Amino acid sequence: MKDAVIILCGGGPAPGMNTVVCSVAKTFLNHGFRVIGLHEGYTGLFSKNPRIEDLDFHKADRFFDKGGSYLQMSRFKPTDADFENNFNLSLFQDNNIKLLVTVGGDDTASTANRIAKFLTAKNFPIKNIHVPKTIDNDLPLPGNSPTFGFNSAKDEGAHLARTIYEDARTSGNWLLISAMGRSAGHLALHIGEATHCPMTILPEMFNKTEITVDKIIKLTLSAIIKRKILGIGYGTVVVAEGVFHDLDSEDLKATGVHMSYDEHGHPELGKISKAVLFNDILEKEYKRLGIKVKTRPVEIGYDVRCQDPIAFDLTYCTQMAMGVYDLFEKGETGCMVYVDAYGEPHPLYLKDLQDASGKIPPRRVDIDGGIAQNYYKNICHYITPEDYEAAKAYVPDPENYDFKKILNWD
């Protein structure tokens, strides 16, 4: 029986999923392996009847440059009891599987880390290598290297945001854009910078002060008022969805915006549009202040996850897939593949990336770094002390809308 490799995809889709899976398949097929695709993510590893299929050259060649994921994905997270009672070792034994390749983001990587420990503890002769995926760009790769899918999502997100900005200019309105990024604001920041958005709000901005609804609203109005002073009656504001997830639930409740709550009394933010939520809260405030402005909500999220990957990700994903074989051939396991700027693959050991709980912590935006700071210093519009007198035409207390004072930045 041929040696085999099995591949699964966890979490949500990102451009390049098929490129990784199909490039792994082509590479291992070229070296005489059987390649098996496992549907439904980690569910299949803990099921007696996993849905598997062989990946041959024709399937790999047909789907490697397509968006979405040929292998059906899942967000299933196995419990400790699943590991002890339901791990499907016979799947590996019956198919002579030597390597498990997992493709996914931080949650998938964290589960891959648990699997690596489990396989080692049980002395099962199965290697596992993880390929880092997420449009959120929040896995801790060296040298600020992107996770695959991020650049394709940024490209499409910026395309959408440019069109939205043109709509704002054409109609004389403000459009409020919520961008995906629950744990980190990378996607929102890069979309905002790429489209010269006058204000982008990230959870990482609140590094010196508590994040509140009031501060989010004041940052937005700071941009709107500044542009009014400049004679510009339109614009966009990009907000990372993580901003709302980081808010205190009581602060959200106090806004009076209608939403459902879970059994613990926490707002179920996953069920609603963050852009609509943001717009509803903002409308109440500028009406209270008597500021004349029209705002409209726009969500950027699901529409950037399954697009065809751009050339950067087609190349990058292929390099990582070939890197999986290189690491496997060298006997590496329990690691995440990282490809440097010269195309050389390296192992990042999951045990070295974990926190005290065993999870892989997300990489957040370096808010003090050049990418963020240069954008906020040079492109964004907001109230500064020099604007106080002119801003009194719109608000009686302009210092409360001073960008740096809101954030407690020096």
Low-confidence parts lasting 5 or more residues at pLDDT below 50? none
Shape: elongated
* Domains, number: 2
Say what the CATH topology of the largest domain is: Rossmann fold
**Fraction of residues in H or I helices:** 25-40%
Number of helices: 16
**Major sheet strand order:** 3-2-1-4-5-10-11
Q: Can you summarize the main beta sheet?
A: 7 strands, mixed
H/E order of the elements? EHEEHHHEHEHEHEHEHHHEHEEHHHH
Offer a concise description of the structure.
With about 400 residues, the protein is an alpha/beta fold. It contains 16 helices and eleven strands.
Element layout with pairings:
Blueprint: E1 4-9, H1 17-30, E2 34-38, E3 52-54, H2 57-63, H3 80-85, H4 89-94, E4 97-104, H5 106-121, E5 127-132, H6 150-171, E6 174-179, H7 186-194, E7 199-201, H8 213-229, E8 235-240, H9 242-245, H10 249-253, H11 274-289, E9 295-300, H12 311-329, E10 335-339, E11 345-349, H13 350-353, H14 370-378, H15 388-391, H16 403-407
Parallel strand pairs: 1-2, 1-4, 4-5, 5-10, 6-8, 6-9, 7-8
Antiparallel strand pairs: 2-3, 10-11
Helix pairs in contact: 1-2, 1-12, 6-7, 8-11
